[in-house]
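Q&A log
Question type: sequence-to-structure
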Amino acid sequence: MPYALIESLDREGRGVAHVEGKTIFIEGGLPGEHVEYESHRRKPTYEQARVVRVLTEAASRVAPCCPYFGVCGGCAMQHIDMRTQVAAKQRILEDAFDHIGNVRPGRVLPPVHGQPWGYRHRARLTARLVPKKGGVLVGFHERRSSYVADMHDCLVLPAQVAALIDPLRALVGALSISNRMPQIEVSVGAAVTVLVFRILEPLTENDEKLLETFADRHGVQVWLQKKGPESAEPFYPLDAPPLYYTLPEFGVQIHFLPTDFTQVNHGINTVLVRRALRLLDPRPGERILDLFCGLGNFTLPIASLGVEVCGYEGHPGLVARARRNAEINGLRARFEVANLFEADACRQLPEADKLLIDPPREGAIEVVKALGDNAPGRIVYVSCDPATLARDAAVLVHTKGYAMKAAGVVNMFPHTAHVESIAVFER
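Response status: OK
Response body:
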């Protein structure tokens, strides 16, 4: 088998090496290591491979805590110590700024990080009847595969949720539609854990009794989803507490539905909101727009400071729930529906002193392109994709007259290669 020296990590946490003019992406390899590898995909200019044997170990290598690491596709970096994981993500962000945007931050912000285990308060688990494996499997997909990992625990899920994996396998296996229930969505709130079962056929009376017994025994609320996410509705118990998470520093509760987008890591989200607002520095008398505002994760903390703020979001259901969150918290904040991926909608946004932008992976290119002479003096941009942030930063810096004052990473998903980040621009 061939050998290689790992030079760096790529955006997926794979080791990068060069052998005879080809780039080799090697799962499990760390910078500085000499490894023996086996390729599973070959192209003219690159190969994808996995480590067979480590000949020289890097100091950053640690023993993975999870027995399913390497099989389960949920984590990619458990073999790397936490400091190196965060440093690798910072390097990915800086490389994106350099190679995609040709921009550099005035200063690098200290990374935001928190608990490495038990942090994942949202998850989508696959359920699949696999007779060869002895019944139903419930868990994440295997790495590079559509198969479901044969797992009985998960260290990144809260302990009380991980403890449900085996009971869920038994429950789904006992249902009449055990091969017609492909997905279980988990959503953990401050007062309740909700499991949303995706069902492709009606439940029998016995099925319903099994679900009710499961909910009572494990202290969860069961929802059923017959079609798309909007069809999800509570099944049992109907008097369960609402789903919400808190932002204690601002005295805010954010209520949500189990199929709504929320940050999976509530602890890191608390720190992220605090940092974003410090960078934004809202002042009384200013008008602030929160774009891609969702349920009001940033809007409501801004409003709690007595600042005029309006959130814009493309999903009418999220806007309705954001307005309800403002009522629940007794805060004055406006929320409007706007498709921020359309140029016309972005050009019609009102003037503001400052912007907070938190887009999905597609970024906010139409927003930044629409900025004119009356553009806000400060923009705080929260990103879940370094490439689109770098692309949008290039527009802000090179065509809109902004300087990128600071940027840094937020380790929202420890042990994965996902890079969350935050940047602040001024003109």
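Response note: The chain has a mean pLDDT of 96.
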